[in-house]
Design a protein that fits this description.
This protein is of the alpha/beta class. β1 (about 5-10) and β2 (about 20) form a beta hairpin. It binds adenosine-5'-diphosphate and zinc ion (2 copies).
Amino acid sequence: MQPTMYADVILPVPFESFTYAVPADMQAVIGVGWRVVVELGQHKQYAGIVLRLHDHAPQGVAVKPILALADEAPIVTDAQLRFWQWVADYYLSPLGDVYKAAFPGSMKKGVQRPTRRRKKGTETPDAADGQVPAVLSPLSAAQQQAYDGIIASWERDGKDITLLHGVTSSGKTEIYIHLIRRAIDAGQQVLYLLPEIALTTQITERLRRVFGDDMGVYHSKFTDKERTDVYMRQLSAQPCHLILGVRSSVFLPFQRLGLVIVDEEHETSYKQQEPAPRYHARSAAAMLARFSGAKTLMGTATPGVETFHLAQTGRYGYVTLLQRYADMQLPDVEIVDIARLRFQKRMKGAFSPRLIEAMGEALERGEQVILFQNRRGFASFIECRHCGWVPRCQHCDVSLTFHKRTGRMTCHYCGASYELPTQCPCCETAEFQKKGTGTERIEEQVSRLFPSARVSRMDLDTARTRQQYEQIIDEFSRHDSDILIGTQMVSKGLDFAGVSVVGILDADTMLNIPDFRSYERTYQVLAQVAGRAGRKGRRGRVILQTRSAQLPLVQHVVDNDYAAFFREQMEERELFHYPPFRRIICVYLRHRDNDLLQHLAEETAVLLRRAFGDRVLGPDAPPVSRVSSLHIRKIMLKMEPTAQVAAVRQTLLSVQQEMMSRPYVANLHFYYDVDPM
Ligand code: ADP
Ligand code: ZN
Ligand code: ZN
């Protein structure tokens, strides 16, 4: 009789792993990283991943057998498993959640599906299959210097991570392309990460021209099958050398990863918010590179404060590119004080005379205009004219947004949609006014100001799907529309030749968000939006409308003075104990019962203070303190950057365990956000 063998299997549920018995006939074949079909609970079958094999019988539970092997070879590599474990540990999230994030949905279902067998001995990509016509544009002198600087930072200075700080339209993408070519020529694989929304046909086509079929694209809006195909191809004997993808592509298998590029590294959308694991793809990618012995390049015109700090203190290599390609000048940014203009009644809706004039001139010359407004919808919210009552979501603690197109109000947190109120529940009058200015209203005003201009609007309402998003961008690229109105979405790495004027309608909305990053984000968004102006041809013009014209931050945008912005931020962050001077971990508790939750959160904070003292803040109700009928409390931990991560994690998990083991705690949900954005 064969000795008993057990397998710890990761399943797509929020736990570490489950132990199963390995049937005798599988024992000779099975190994770590194999996908197996198992039963969990009574009837549910899943595909899980073998994490380890051993001979320790679990105590006091009946062990079920593995039902089948799902493939003919392992489909998760040792390197991937190590990476999963890092994500799980660092972001305080069970391995099962990492597995869930790592695999397309259908690959986790408990059905057997045939997969291609990997040929022995051909596991590394073949460096010689460069069948693709390599049409590389030669680099300019400034670009070549930056390129050489990047290589030197890796090879001469021994840095693993280098920051390329290049102004907008300096040709960073062109430098990436040359670096990718170099890595592929050396037989290496490359991961090129972009923020979700920046991954358009624009960039895909640009890279496709150079790398042809040797490039795989991985996007969350692709179908399950498309993503599964990319995953399986990366395991095969002929993997793509280049993967262009969003956040989740850090979970793809790589066989000879040599270079990771994180474009627009400052983008907060690299951080997964919901569900767990709440990982930051920039940090995760850098760690993946480290596990693989690969180099990392982070590129941006507006580095994140923490990233720039690491570059300044020598932890990262640092290379600058201060000129735009083809000596295009950076745009001329002009501040317009809309507080004064409003007082003088000289505004037309959201538009100052300066902006209307600049737009008119551009349109007359046949040039294009981008208008940036940080809010979608027609009006931000609706308010009772008499008592100020504002309709709110029944399930969430937020006010509702009015959408003119549908004539309804929606909750931007849970998606619930509501009829307009007919009567105020507080004062029983029936007069409401619309407050705030969303993209939809801007569109209406533009059509009145410039009746013959063709206008497109891009926000989460008009660009719900990838197709819609691409269509709007294509339309504007082809100059089939003259004015593009958009939210943040229009700031992300887009390259339009015809845009000479960018109007920022209200720079202040972002500043008023109560978050230590609101200034950083405002600077980044303003500088990035401004950077869409004047990329080809005439020098661009940016009209920046604000009620905070005196604010130093606004002046730094005008002067394109990142260094001054950074100095100011660092002073504030040091003073108020924020990153990079502290590492933040947020502990969240959720429960249906608000009073019970408050009580439990206070007890949790007491336990945490016992270990961490006054590094513990809260509990507090976050700005949105109820979502989908669950109340939320947040406890913030501010640790010294030198704190032992493993020890902190251990303490947090034992406090959680203690809280969850109390008899009266049912349905309490605990989770963490490490390095929140
Ligand atoms: P960034 O990524 O820094 O914003 P891009 O790489 O998009 O800048 O370059 C801006 C524009 O200049 C693009 O239209 C690009 O095609 C062009 N460009 C940049 N470098 C070169 C080059 N070496 N040869 C030809 N065109 C270039
Ligand atoms: Zn009222
Ligand atoms: Zn809601």
